[in-house]
Amino acid sequence: MTLNWGCNTPGQLRGASHRRSLCKKFQEHERRMTMITVRIGRLPGRIEELALESGSVVADALEVSALDPEGYEVRVNGAPTDLEAELTDGDTVLLVKKIKGNC
Fold first, then answer.
1. pLDDT, block means (10 residues), the chain with 103 residues
2. Which one of 53, 93, 96, 103 counts the least CB within 10 Å of its CB?
3. CB atoms within 10 A of CB 21
4. Is 92 a member of any domain?
């Protein structure tokens, strides 16, 4: 599908400010449509690969994969994180069982 946002049509009758506005909308549209690939899973358990929209956060990935973080520590690329952390292409999201001990 091709969308004409007027970004590369200098001969249009509309003014430059209108073209800038359309270009900004186009760039926002392109950003939203960019996909990233992340790996997600529970340890112990299996890990799957997901395709998500750019700008997705950990909570989005968990929702798509139908994983519940209750009772697990959430990690992205091995580091503890929160559910609102934005994901980037190639990230690995893991739910790791919380370890209880007597210290």
1. 48 54 66 85 93 95 96 96 97 91 66
2. 103
3. 14
4. yes
